[in-house]
Amino acid sequence: MNNFEFYNPTRIVFGEGKIVELNRLIPKEAKVLILFGGESARKTGTLDEVEKALGHRQIGLFGGIEANPRYETLIKAVEQIKQEGYDYLLAVGGGSVIDGTKFVAAAVNFEGDSWDILTSGGAKVTSALPFGTVLTLPATGSEMNKGSVITREATQSKRAFMHDSVYPQFSILDPVKTFTLPPRQISNGVVDAFVHVMEQYLTYPANAPVQDVFAEGLLKTLIDIGPKALATPHDYDIRASLMWTATLALNGLIGVGVPQDWSTHMLGHELTALYGLDHAQTLAIVLPSMLIEKLPQKQAKLAQYAEQVWGVHDGSDKQKALQAIELTREFFERMQVKTRLSDYNLGQDVIEPLIESLTKNGMTALGEHHDITPEISRRVYVASL
Ligand code: NZQ
Ligand code: ZN
């Protein structure tokens, strides 16, 4: 096992009806800006519930944070905070609203061009406004991690940053809030959480058995409950399991002391930035091809994955590995997420722009061995056609 430091200060308040706890969780004297997405928070009544729970506090609203949140939108929230003087932020939504809120929290006191927060990967961040979240979509783990992914429309760049100061102080996870999600978002959430586990698990053996078993447990749970979450949308226990599994998939716990990959995410971000695919759609396309491309380096872990997650025990390690990759693709398709670029009418002509953008964004040495060059990324994209 590699050396590591683990820190996660986010308080999780889990269960039906827990939004009322906002009154206890946010300081009484705070002036709170509530950030949310399009129409869902208002339509579902969640926004009303949140405002009611905040009682007599001074509040303001900032709506319109889009899926794959845009820098251009978020800097307007930064301006509003500077003008109106909020000292606490509350994100109400999915990963996009939470990621956007993290950026806003870090940008308010940032000296200089706030896009540098992204280009420096967070290294230039010094402080952030405190904030909490009310999660309405189980998928990203953003509710309990220090990562944020922001898109700059003007340059079609989708970049991530991390900083300890943008862990949410608390996140309220009420599974009932997921009942209104359209099937597409449930499908996306299951696939995103699944790939988060894979990025931290499917590398090479690192003498970290407890991380492995945690990861395998999360994957098996997603395989079991994913289709059920689609089939029975109002099953509280299924939604509760999905919500907590997605949080555990990317709250840092399973990634400590082990090598991590993240190349599928980086290739996927380019597909979203250039062609607008949903985050999870990009992952379902890239992951199977990436695993085949990296089969020699990943074979030992793929064989373990085949045995422990899929119950495949026959054949050579290579045969088991290949079968597990195929089963992974079938699982994504069963979750109604397509696994080929051609499913989105994207053909050979998209490959070079994707490679150019990856290179421009400095994504030239990806994966756990930092050996995925643009040339190899090109092969992965081509294999995904
Ligand atoms: O905008 P509204 O109207 O609110 O609708 C949203 C949005 O269109 C809707 N929605 C959310 N909760 C709902 C609901 N509709 C009905 N009922 C509800 N309860 O769902 C749509 C998608 O929301 P979004 O927040 O974009 O989805 P998700 O949570 O999947 O977040 C995706 C973003 O997170 C980033 C992705 O890159 C992408 O930008 N990621 C963040 C990570 C992190 N911070 O650690 C890691 C991930 O790998 C990922 O990159
Ligand atoms: Zn993801």
Could you walk me through the main structural features you see in this protein, from its secondary elements to its overall organization?
The chain is α/β, with parallel strands linked by helices. The chain folds into two domains: 11-174, Rossmann fold (3-Layer(aba) Sandwich); 181-384, Dehydroquinate synthase-like, alpha domain (Up-down Bundle), CATH 1.20.1090.10. The chain has helices spanning 22-25, 40-43, 46-53, 71-84, 95-107, 116-119, 183-201, 209-231, 236-249, 263-275, 279-293, 295-310, 317-334, 351-360, 374-383; strands at 11-14, 31-36, 58-62, 88-93, 131-135, 147-152, 157-162, 170-173. The chain has a six-stranded parallel β-sheet with strand order 1-8-5-4-2-3, sandwiched between helices. A two-stranded antiparallel ribbon has the order 6-7. α7 runs antiparallel to α8 and α7 (183-201) runs parallel beside α11 (279-293). It is globular, with a radius of gyration of 20 Å. The model has no long low-confidence stretch (mean pLDDT 98). The chain binds 5,6-dihydroxy-NADP and zinc ion. Residues 140, 192, 195-196, 265, 279 line the site of zinc ion. Residues 140, 192, 195-196, 265, 279 line the site of zinc ion (ZN).
